[in-house]
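Predict structure. Chain length: 160.
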Amino acid sequence: MKGDWLRWLWLLFWLVLCFAVAGLGARWSRPEIAGWYRRLRRPRFNPPDWIFGPVWTLLYFLMATAAWRFGEESDSRVRAAGLILFLVQLGLNLGWSWIFFKQHSLGWALAELCLLWAVIGATTLVFRSVQSGAARLMVPYLAWVSFAGVLNWAVWRLNR
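Prediction complete.
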């Protein structure tokens, strides 16, 4: 019984951490959408602006749940490596918002996003080696970042 509340505290920790990153990224992004971002030439397949909020909310929830499930596994070097990778990808995720929206650096954002994609992939593989359920929760995030990479590339190409 005593361990149950600690399990839920860890879930709360991961949720707070992921949504803090989401909030900071949104704080950097939101003011730029109505001005700078709207003036960019965007590809036809660019989703409507309203879709990004709900999609990212779901993805941050899934990411937090994945980290929580993976973190519940027995202490090991693999577990430590997986959680470090998770934190690195979370930092890179936040970094992309800064580079793209605050710095207006489309090319550097694309390069950073490629690194983010690789670290998400590595995180997912490490998660899979220990906790397949946690890895499955990362797949929609990897898919969305793959799409975001194509979108970032198209926006960069159209606005060089």
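Summary: Residues 2-39 form the longest helix (38 residues).
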